[in-house]
Amino acid sequence: MATVAPSELVEDVCTETEKLMMAYGERSGYVAKYDECVNALQMDPRTATANITTLAEISVQLAISCAKNAKALIENLLGNTTPASREPLQNCLSSYVNITGHFENALSGLSAGLQSSNFDIAEVLDLVKICELELTRNQTHILQLTNRNHYTRMFVEISEFLITRLELYHIGNGFTQTRTHG
């Protein structure tokens, strides 16, 4: 499979996201690499021609998919786990139910109010941290879930960066919080 060069917008977003995360990596507990960001966004073919609004929507949609996959993984793990792992997995499941809801609210907010979208996105980091802390506290090591948490954090950072850029664009152009369609 041939790799497609990322668009200039994707390059910019992933470069800036990586820089911000290097500077503020302690906020989410990890730093997404440029290549991870590009590969993640390019999972959606619309990325190649997306403007910033569409790329924000794509990022949040990919985040929803990632969260739903993590939730399904946890449900599967709960069906075949030790008693010691059950409680942390149930807490992670609860977190991912909420994570999915926050991402879905953020997607809805992209067409109504960018500030509420950023609030919903920011809430996800705390929920991912809760899941990770539960796993660590109980010494439950599930690499697949740790990887899902990593990608969820990455989509938070990418989405938050894009939504903030959209907010700044709207403020700079005198737009209100409501996006016009057309």
TrEMBL record:
<dbReference type="InterPro" id="IPR035513">
    <property type="entry name" value="Invertase/methylesterase_inhib"/>
</dbReference>
<dbReference type="Pfam" id="PF04043">
    <property type="entry name" value="PMEI"/>
</dbReference>
<dbReference type="InterPro" id="IPR034088">
    <property type="entry name" value="Pla_a_1-like"/>
</dbReference>
<feature type="domain" description="Pectinesterase inhibitor">
    <location>
        <begin position="9"/>
        <end position="117"/>
    </location>
</feature>
<protein>
    <submittedName>
        <fullName>Invertase inhibitor</fullName>
    </submittedName>
</protein>
<dbReference type="GO" id="GO:0004857">
    <property type="term" value="F:enzyme inhibitor activity"/>
</dbReference>
<dbReference type="InterPro" id="IPR006501">
    <property type="entry name" value="Pectinesterase_inhib_dom"/>
</dbReference>
